[in-house]
Amino acid sequence: MQAAAVDNNASFGPNKIEEGGQRLRDNLSVLFAPLTDTKGLGGKGSTLPATNTLFVVAPQDEFDLIAGEEVRLAEPLRTVLWEISCSEMAEQLTIFHHSQLSNVYPWEFLHHPKEAAKEMTDHFNRLVAYFVWSVLVEDTPKDRAEVIEDIISIAMAASAPPLNNFHLDVRERVEMALEALFVDDRQLVTRFLHKFWLDFKHNVWISGVGPALQSIQLCVATLHKEVMTYKMTELVQISGLDENSVDLHSIVYEKIVALTVQPIYLKIVSKAKRACAMEDAHAAARVLQCTPHGVADSSTAIPCTSSSPIELLNLVCQLVAVPLHHDSSPTAVVAATDHQLAAVELLATLQHQGRKTFLATHPVSSLYLMHQILDPKYLAPHRRQALDVFAAAVRWLRKDQKISSNELKGS
């Protein structure tokens, strides 16, 4: 008994706490294991965790039939809370909960609404089933009451301001709130966006590239106005920013652009590439003429790997912010107030670092997409300046006169 008491006292050290956290993560990985479709005796499909079952223990005879297969079961909540606190449990549950919800993209509710809704519902039901099972598995009413009190404590800890989305920064919290908003069919903005997607896909091939992009810009402007008008209180509470904050408006605007454009982006990229094919070829040739032989093949089609104009603009910001040489002066955006000088730095960076990117092979269509969809007044200052620099670089590339590779190197 004395030895057991010593062991129990020693178990509360830092190593034991870390071990408890790892056991919790292992426990939750079983709880949130991927679901697999199986066939029952009646031929109907059923959905089970990939690690067999969570809570139901099979008879011993059935275990004997599973040759060498280990069935992992989740540990009851009361067992887990012997090693970690309710706050730590709330943190881990928040992480798992957000990771599961982020696997369902908003546009999946348009194409496969039943499957997407079922996936989110199944995740919630499994979490509830775990808490219910943790109560029922206890032997005495007193133990069950203690588990219920623990569940209430976990819920209160998860909803407390210091722990609510504790692992997310301001941008991530706002983006998550907008994602949740645009999957709620009860919201007017969600229904408006779904209708826009359907109308756009019906009319995209019979309309010109200009009207198509203008309709996207109008849709984004409408959604942004509605969200900032009717959801401002929630956004301020989530972000902790002032309602007139430039950062809040830019974060909301950029996320709305991404959510609006992602399901239809490849269609508008295809139209823009066809409309700007000749200018893209001429501009790309001027970018690639200083590329070493064999490094880049101009005949090879470079796919567009971005999913929205915001991602294209992010690439531009990265190229503008990266010096060409380690010993060079400060970056183009910081050091050059003259956009022409910054454009030269950007072109040099494209030649050496971005020669295989969509920006280098389709600079004119990339700029056209960003100019036609994005409203500069809602962009962050550094993004707006990077867009101006890229526009200056593209204007230089579209000049009719030819220049030699030596002249370009000298610039």
From TrEMBL:
An example Gene Ontology molecular-function term: guanyl-nucleotide exchange factor activity
Biological processes per GO annotation: small GTPase-mediated signal transduction
Coiled coil: none
Residue intervals of the Ras-GEF domain: 88-167
Highest taxon of the lineage: Eukaryota
Annotated region (Disordered), positions in chain: 1-20
Name used for this protein in its record: Ras-GEF domain-containing protein
Organism from which the protein derives: Phytophthora kernoviae
